[in-house]
């Protein structure tokens, strides 16, 4: 079955790639823009509105006619789109914020969420910086399979191209999602959910005026966008609900962390900080961790001990499985 699935992923990617390369050459534009147009053609099976020559329109129609939605499950489609976006980042030399959260990390985040919410009937998620929607849809598919329920998902993204890719991705996967094409820091009217989750962009937010309404804003100069997004996200989580964020491992070791810690006091509990394997990053400064926060209320309390540690190498399957067992025990004995 796995061989068949890998073959299907490759087959779907080849359709996307051939079509995108044709459009890219014909219109002399980026691979990313061509991929966005390809996803629309694949879904609508209509290439007539792209203003291509008759010959190219015919070729494109033939390529995309090889796609039959019923041949694929959602996870296969997600992975095919992921492969195409990864190619776009290489071909177009796209900025770091377009980088996709690796599936290994998404799987770990989904594993933690599954453990916390095992036995629940419903679960709702919000990603305040969803990018291309890969993490959000990966979690949707994983939670749908492990918890045997249909998650309710919402996402926010300001970048035009990334939002279009996210919207196309959820549509082609037949996932119902509430997506907002807005700047999160301008206080989007997003839903209140059980879990906020995000691979947060790292750096400074450029519009100081927009950040003033946040307790985590910097008193001097630009504010860290990842601090603002954590605050926004947890403000949209239910009492006792959780936030899981990919953050710099050194999150609490900067001068700006004072405002973040001040905001957290009495409002959210720091329940865990799990460093990802150092081998995934170019250097120590770039290392990231999974931050686990819980809103106060509904019998939530500060766990003792806080889950701290570093994942072993994902290549060391025995050590990795043992670490997951430790997380299971912590969730069952301490967190709950």
TrEMBL record:
What would be one Pfam family of this protein?
YtxK_like
Q: Name one GO molecular function term.
A: DNA binding
Q: Name one GO biological process term.
A: methylation
InterPro entries given in the database record:
DNA_methylase_A-5, DNA_Protect_Modify, S-AdoMet-dep_Ade-MeTrfase_prd, SAM-dependent_MTases_sf, YtxK-like_N
Q: Which residues form the YtxK-like N-terminal helical domain?
A: 10-88
Q: Which UniProt keywords apply?
A: Methyltransferase, Transferase
Q: Tell me the ranges covered by the DNA methylase adenine-specific domain, including all copies.
A: 101-299
| Protein's recorded name | Adenine-specific methyltransferase
From what organism does this protein derive?
Lentilactobacillus kisonensis DSM 19906 = JCM 15041
């Amino acid at each position: 079955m796995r061989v068949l699935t890998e073959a299907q992923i490759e087959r779907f990617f080849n359709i996307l790639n051939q079509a995108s390369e044709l459009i890219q050459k014909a219109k002399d534009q980026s691979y990313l823009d061509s991929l966005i147009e390809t996803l629309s053609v694949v879904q609508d099976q209509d290439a007539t509105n792209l203003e291509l020559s008759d010959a190219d329109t015919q070729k494109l129609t033939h390529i995309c006619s090889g796609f039959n939605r019923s041949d694929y499950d959602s996870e296969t489609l997600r992975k095919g789109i992921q492969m195409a976006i990864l190619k776009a980042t290489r071909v177009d030399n796209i900025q770091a914020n377009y980088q996709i959260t690796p599936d290994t990390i998404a799987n770990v985040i989904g594993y933690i969420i599954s453990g916390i919410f095992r036995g629940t009937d419903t679960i709702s998620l919000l990603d305040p910086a969803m990018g291309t929607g890969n993490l959000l849809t990966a979690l949707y598919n994983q939670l749908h399979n492990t918890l045997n329920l249909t998650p309710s998902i919402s996402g926010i993204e300001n970048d035009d191209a990334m939002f279009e890719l996210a919207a196309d991705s959820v549509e082609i996967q037949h996932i119902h999602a509430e997506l907002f094409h807005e700047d999160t820091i301008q206080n989007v009217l997003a839903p209140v959910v059980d879990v906020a989750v995000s691979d947060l962009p790292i750096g400074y937010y450029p519009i100081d005026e927009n950040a003033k309404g946040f307790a985590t804003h910097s008193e001097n100069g630009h504010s860290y966008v990842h601090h603002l997004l954590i605050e926004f996200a947890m403000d949209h989580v239910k009492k006792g609900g959780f936030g899981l964020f990919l953050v710099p491992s050194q999150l609490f070791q900067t001068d700006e962390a004072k405002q973040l810690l001040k905001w957290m006091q009495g409002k959210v509990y720091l329940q865990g900080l799990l460093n990802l394997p150092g081998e995934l990053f170019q250097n120590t400064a770039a290392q990231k961790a999974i931050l686990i926060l819980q809103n106060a209320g509904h019998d939530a309390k500060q766990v003792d001990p806080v889950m701290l540690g570093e994942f072993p190498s994902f290549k060391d399957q025995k050590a990795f499985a043992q670490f997951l067992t430790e997380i299971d025990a912590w969730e069952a004995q301490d967190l709950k």
